[in-house]
Request: fold
Amino acid sequence: MSHMSPILWIIVALAVAGGLLYVAVRRTQRHLPPLTLPQGEKLPKTALQRLAETSFIAVATLSAAAATIVVFFGVEAFWDRDAVRLSATGFVLAALAVFTYYSLRVAAWSARDDGKLDERDRAILASAPAAQAPALMVTLAAWMIGLTESFHTTAEVPTVFLYLIFWSCTMVTVASLLAGIVVGYRRS
Amino acid sequence: MTGERATLANSIRKLRLEHGDMTQQELADRAKCSRQTIIMLEQERYVPSLVLAMRIARIFRTPVEKIFTLRDI
Reply:
């Protein structure tokens, strides 16, 4: 167990957490009447739903790209080689830029009273942060277990992991908020 | 009622068709909500706020209690 990389621990823990979240979502889903639409017609998406889905895909892809760089080149290379560190940081900052754009659009829609963001959207938006705390707890638990297992013998954790913990928590917070909105529309 | 669950039935679809085949999008625009919300309302998958219910009642010029009725499930 102690030979397993902390990054792999994170990936395994997030996969397990994703599975548990899926089961929890299915078990707590309200029993609603079936949705019937005219043949060939799909449920139209709301503006918030489209924006949240697009932003989630972008944030998840950019975060995955950053994580891939760290895993592929290794934590030491990430710390020692500027090109590796700047590339990974660039992807993370791009993901944050996407989230900033999302936040500004939602804030602008909230200020208007033209139905762009209606009461159902606002209810889904209000319930979305419920996914953040569990996701963050799982991420921190994964880091704690991974780092403890990896550095138990030396009792010294390299400083680079502070950097990685911060960015992973930030990305998980952002992605889980967007995921909460996407899931909110599927559940209601 | 003896504490059973209830849902809010409505006659929005019927009223929409009676009002010159008003489309869901037209109603959504006038009620300041999305078409998805109108679809969810018509299929009784969403319970509106009092504000939205009264906006819809005003559009159809019908008392709100004639559009929305409590139904035990």
User: Anything to note?
Assistant: The mean pLDDT of chain A is 89. The helical segments of chain A are 6-27, 47-73, 75-80, 82-111, 119-127, 132-151, 160-187.
